[in-house]
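User: Quick sanity check before I run a bigger batch. Here is a single chain. Can you write out its predicted 3D structure?
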Amino acid sequence: MSELSPREEPADAHLRASDDERDHTAAVLADALAQGRLTVDEHAERLESVYAARTRGQLAPLTADLPTPAPGAPLASPADDAPVRALFSKVRRAGQWPVPPHTVAHATFGAIVIDLRQAVFTRREVVVEAGSLFGKVEILVPDGAQVYDTGSALFGKRSHLGAAREKSGDGPVVRITGRSVFGHVRVMREYPYPWRDGR
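Assistant: Done. Predicted structure follows.
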């Protein structure tokens, strides 16, 4: 990581950091990304360090060169919940988009593609609620992601093409919920047919 601007080390730097403190630091970084203070690569690098931090002293340098948010000021992080719906249509979300903590993807007689491979994770753990009613939801996850599918199917199908194979614990955690009714929810790390990628 590139050298950050020095800031006086807090007196409680030795104390263990809480999940709330890590999430707050992640929100400050997401705000800086939205304002153009950090590049996508810088944000990803620092976010990885946020969730690897064990103490408050390890968190502090990650925002040392960023403005300190005013107490109570809203941060420009993504909404807690982002709905994606397809009705007799196809919707694709891909590229370097900020992934909120909870994404709802419901396809009714349609198709949805949620591509997380180049997405910007503002939290280490996210939930994708994938529901299909006579439709299809495809979720592409990064190669280092840990995937947990706890969804269900009723006269439908849920499949995992390579997504269930064991991966490093350093990647984001993607939890998939929802229900497939006469539909299909498919999770994969890459398209089985390369010529379909991006379509």
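The chain is about 15% helix and 35% strand.

User: Great, the batch can go ahead then.
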